[in-house]
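Task: complex structure prediction.
Instruction: return structure tokens for all chains below.
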Amino acid sequence: MIRREQMCNAAVILLLLAIPLWAHSADAPFVITLATKVTILALAGVGLNIALGIGGLVSLGHAVFFGIGGYATGILASHAQTYEPLLQAPFVIEGTNQMPIIWLVAVVFSALAALVIGALSLRTSGVYFIMITLAFGQMFYYFAISWSAYGGEDGLSIWVRNEFPGANTLVPLHFFLICFAILCAVLWFAARLARAPFGLALAAARQNQDRVEAVGITPYRLRLVAFVVSGAITGLAGALFADLNRFVSPSMLSWHTSGEIMIFVIIGGVGRLFGPVVGAAIFILLEHFLGGISEYWQIYLGGFLLVIVLYARGGVIGALAGREVAHD
Amino acid sequence: MTDPNHSVSPVLEVRGVSKSFGALHASRDISLDLRAGEIHALIGPNGAGKSTLIKQITGELRPDRGSVLLNGEPIDHLSRMARAQRGLGRTFQISALAMDFTVLQNAVLGALVARGGVFRFFSNVMRDRDLVARASEALDRVGLADVAQMRTADISHGQRRQLEVAIALTQRPKLFLMDEPMAGLGAGGSQSMTVFLASLRQEAPILLVEHDMDAVFALADRISVLVYGQIIATGTQEEIRNSVEVQRAYLGEEDAL
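Output:
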């Protein structure tokens, strides 16, 4: 039996694919860019949703991972542009414009950052956890501002979008399809994870810490692994986002970014697999259409968020598909 | 009468455990043991320190002094999680369950941790036959098979108590620490729980904290009476009933006895 939520999810993903395909044939590259933005931000949200939705970890520091991904792209690409090696001694590391390598670097470094940040901040919980993740976010933000070698406050431009073997990333549709494929793969992974033994234990630790401790699992270990996985995915999204804009700046690391990623998740539905996809789509649509009417379009976003939080705790997905069905 | 278990070390032994919270002496030099095949009831008025003692056995609290031994080995250095994995199966006075999960999922969680393999990211845990079988068996034994697919938040209070016991069963523990399993069960529920616990002692001994005196006298092989953090008597039902100290300190308050 196909459940309503699965039908919703299928509709969302097909729509996300169909619109750029139509835009390609209708020669509307701007629409493709918007869809790509939705796809990448959704990916960042899917990352956060593993920590927030399954693990109940309210992280206000996910911009760190998003930004690390972005700077991985920016730094590697800038060295590839200038043919200056990234490192001379003890061995030479060249920059690169190959996306797969950049992604790998982005994932590894954001995972490492998540490991360190998580190891320290997960010793606390509740509002202290939120504050510590926020504090780490601010540290990275101000570090990036002061890092003049890579543009400091002005950020770093990527002259030509990085390359992917077998595709022409300068064609908007090609780049969209690359991002879309990654989103699908990560959604598949997130769906597996939620149903896996690890997902069950992590969700149990969110609901009742005493219970998991009494059966013999350490919640800290579960949460740390979830935080690292979550950070790595958001880092990958950051790498793609830098390539989309061909620009990286400290604003990727600012706490507004952390808040926005959280807003995608909350609008779409915390803990719902496609919540971040729907949330990011609504966010971008509001930004696009209302942003044309008023510079202060976020007033409407705020109102929308308020309605969701007060009347639809399961987000848009929750409102459409009803209460979450537990594992089968 | 000779006690066949007397020569071997008890499954659980508490040796001289003391714990204070400021001026409050919650545990004063408590010693007791739990032998194979027995139900040892721990009774005492509210605030006597029963739950505090349970928490020091499970590792939720560290005693100021004294030692806890499992099968003759000290486990004081072990965390709560490590003690659970060594075979301490615990039920809570106030149900500690994942309320959004189905009843079956709660039981699978217990079975999963006991079996190992928590850090798996791809397999579907609810399609793991071994775990589901183990969890279903436990639910079946406590009489929850019918509600296995219901959300834990939607079952009755009494059923949650039964689920607590079922989760402990999935762990196949060496001993059970049960903190008021009868609380809020109602007459019928408490009777069927009594029958069930009576059969359970063959599997693993039970340290039973309970207020329901009918259940205690129906089940307990031995009883320890805890008053103001101190064990004033340990013995068979006869010995406890006839103890002058217990009558003075505790039973006098309870007309039912």
